[in-house]
Amino acid sequence: MALLINKMENHDAYAALRIKNFRFYLTARFFITVALQMQAVVVGWQVYEITKDPFSLGLIGLSEAIPYIGMALFGGYFADKYNRKTIILTSAGIFFICGVLLYLFTTGLSNMLLIYGTLPIYIVIAVSGFARSFIYPSQTALMAQLVPKELYTNSSTWNSTTWHIAAVSGPAIGGLVYGFFGVSNAYLSVTTSVIIGFIGFSLIRNNHIKTFESGAESFFRSLSGGLRFVKNNQIILGAMSLDMLAVLFGGATAMLPVFAAEILHVGPQGLGFLRAAPAAGAVIMAIFLAYHPPIYRSGKKLLISVAGFGLCIILFAISRNFYLSLFILFMSGMLDNISVIIRHTIMQIYTPDHMRGRVAAVNSIFIGSSNEIGSFESGLAARLMGLIPSVIFGGSMTLIITGITTKIAPILRNMNLKDKLYENTHHK
Q1: What does the pLDDT read at residue 218?
Q2: CA distances (Å), origin 360, targets 143, 320, 353
Q3: What is the pLDDT of residue 349?
Q4: Choosing a second label site near 173 at 20 to 30 A (CA), which of 102, 233, 287, 299?
């Protein structure tokens, strides 16, 4: 016990990376994330080039959100009931098919876009959203079983670091390839990255995973088990709700193609860097947090970081300088990553093993609401209020929501992850 706590106090920044299966996991997730981030940039710019309408960018998010949120609970149920590695590989295979179809729409099947407009692209994105609803809970549940409990914060930090490095690389690569080599080669890059990610997940040793036994419990009662668990856990529910509402209103990512084209006057290359800037900031913060994990006064740090994120969104909306906008987005990524790592650690240490998939699925519904539905909200608000006022409104709502949460959620505000981590170590 004393030795384990001593290790936690020393904050071995690379402890989780010494686990072979975890390294395979991070490598695979990196390339899958790169692929999805590249695809998001390429699709966003292509759709805006075709339509010249900000609302069409919001429809991209809606196309992905409907199947993603609609199937999320099923994805969590399957992640707890069946082989998680198989689910991940199957989902990656669907991503590959989607990338191939998007490529074909720019080559042999390009006449489909001439006839049907952007509808075929929206359909492919919807299929991609379906696959995401299954891969996310399986990935989350699998990662927690690759490392011991005392390394959950460390593994969450490196998982977040890897994701954000991919989120830096993906948009930058997608924008640069699109700008210099064309949309077809950009989609080829997407499919190549998916293949590498598929191979990486295949190399993970398929450890035995104890699944839940539903017994006499009905299928739909088992399916909704994650919802009941989250509802009865104030810390998990509070963290998820804060993330959902803050990012729902505060996210400006969906409107970046419009900012790039009409406000900052940069092409797809500039859009790639704008998309990458928040992730670059998140990587810097994640490296810092690997050495200084946010396990002390965690609740207060969570609330402060979300408020800072909202302020950055307001400043971004009023900026007219490309480099200043990059810096503001960079800072927003640093602040956002603090809340991401705290929330991921909460998910891991407060969720029992046999429910990880279903609870992760509930979390994915919150994330889907805040990201994909947030994209639709951004597009609709931009049409109704104008681009700049809508983004300022969103950032202001994030500040208001954070203030309300601070007032009505004292358990979350006073939370210390250190206490729960030590408790888990003691029982271990």
Answers
A1: 61
A2: 11, 39, 11
A3: 78
A4: 287
Q: Count of CB atoms within 10 A of residue 24's CB? A: 18
More confident site: 163 or 97? 97
- 324 is written with which tokens? 């200043």
Residues 6+ apart with CB under 8 A from 81: 211, 212, 214, 357
Average pLDDT over every residue of 122-141: 89
Q: Which residue has the tokens 């005392």?
A: 150
pLDDT score recorded for residue 370: 61
* CA distances for 93 relative to 63, 119, 356, angstroms: 20, 22, 23
Q: To which residue do tokens 């969906």 refer? A: 254
- Most confident by average pLDDT, 105-119, 217-231, 262-276, 372-386: 262-276
Provide long-range contacts, Cβ within 8 A and 24+ apart, for 103-109. Answer: 103/184, 103/187, 103/188, 103/190, 103/191, 106/182, 106/183, 106/184, 106/187, 107/184
Q: DSSP secondary-structure letter at 264?
A: S
Say whether pTM exceeds 0.90: no
Q: H or E stretch including 148?
A: none
Comparing 63-77, 259-273, 357-371, the range with the smallest average pLDDT is: 357-371
The number of CA neighbours under 13 Å toward the Cβ of 346 is 25
For residues 318, 320, 326 and 331, what is the CA-based torsion angle, rounded to 10 degrees?
-20
Q: How far from the centroid of its chain's Cα atoms is residue 95's Cα?
A: 16
Residue with token string 């503001």: 328
Count of positions (residues) in the chain: 428
What 8-state DSSP symbol labels residue 52?
-
pLDDT of residue 97: 94
In the numeric block, the tokens 């040793």 are attached to 205
d(CA 340, CA 321): 28
Torsion of the alpha carbons at 4, 8, 14 and 20, rounded to the nearest 10: 40
Q: Is 52 left (phi over 0), alpha (psi -120 to 50) or beta?
A: left
Q: How far apart are CA 219 and CA 216, in angstroms?
A: 9
Q: Which amino acid, residue 343? A: R
407 Cβ contact list (under 8 Å, min separation 6): none
Domains of the chain: 8-205+222-427 (1.20.1250.20)
DSSP secondary structure string, 338-399? Answer: HHHHHHHHHHHHHS-GGGHHHHHHHHHHHHHIIIIIHHHHHHHHHHHH-HHHHHHHHHHHHH
Least Cα distance to 376 among 256, 248, 275, 257 occurs for 248
Chain mean position to CA 235: 20
